[in-house]
Amino acid sequence: MLATTSTGTQRRLLIVAAVLGLHVAGLWALQSGLLRRAAELVIPVQILADLIEAPQPEITPLPPAPPTEQARPTKPKPTQPKPVAAPVPQPVAIADTTPAPDAPTGVTAPDPAPPALLVAVSAPAPAPPAPPAPPAPPRIELPSSNADYLNNPRPPYPALSKRLGEQGKVVVRVFIEANGTASQAEIRSSSGYERLDQTALQTVLKWRYTPGKRNGVAEGMWFNVPISFVLE
């Protein structure tokens, strides 16, 4: 709307300016004797008419008329679903348990059971051999000096030890050979008196012994002989 108004105003101003210019030019021509020359300047009537033609009023388009009922699009009517016919029940065959006249009588044996499946099982790996049992310890029989057939005399009691009242127990460690004789002797436990210890040591070296045995075989070995000195 603003652009159209501005264009109409400019057009009016141009027409007014043209008319004023023609009047001024005519007056000047009359005064300067240039009327003849002005007559030669013929302005086309169409141009002048266009210039002096009044501007046409602008026509605002009318809003479109609302559509009539006939022009309104009709909505399609919803179609009614066609009725579906219910399925007709079909006849069902019923098994007849009555045996046929020519059917074989008797008890029907059931089908044999399928053979059992054999599953291959790998044999377990053999166990490693057990370590050999340790040898049994040898059976050892210690020497003895108490056998009756040996007739070993009792050790003599020193006379001075009796007068002084010396008494005690001596343990002598003796090495007995395989033939039953004593080859070495030493004091293992003292009685506290030298005379008693030496008497016991000399006595066990003179005795006879039953030799010690290893697995039934006689061999030399050490043996402890206890001797007690007791005053009566």
Structure description:
The chain has helices at residues 2-32, 35-40, 45-52, 159-164, 194-206; strands at 140-141, 168-176, 182-189, 213-214, 217-218, 221-229. The chain has 232 residues and is of the alpha+beta class. The radius of gyration is 81 Å and the shape is rod-shaped. Mean pLDDT is 75; it is low at 38-45.
Summarize the structure.
With 232 residues, the protein is of the alpha+beta class. The chain has helices spanning 2-32, 35-40, 45-52, 159-164, 194-206; strands at residues 140-141, 168-176, 182-189, 213-214, 217-218, 221-229. A three-stranded antiparallel sheet has the order 1-4-5, with no helix packed on it. A three-stranded antiparallel sheet has the order 3-2-6, with helices on one face.
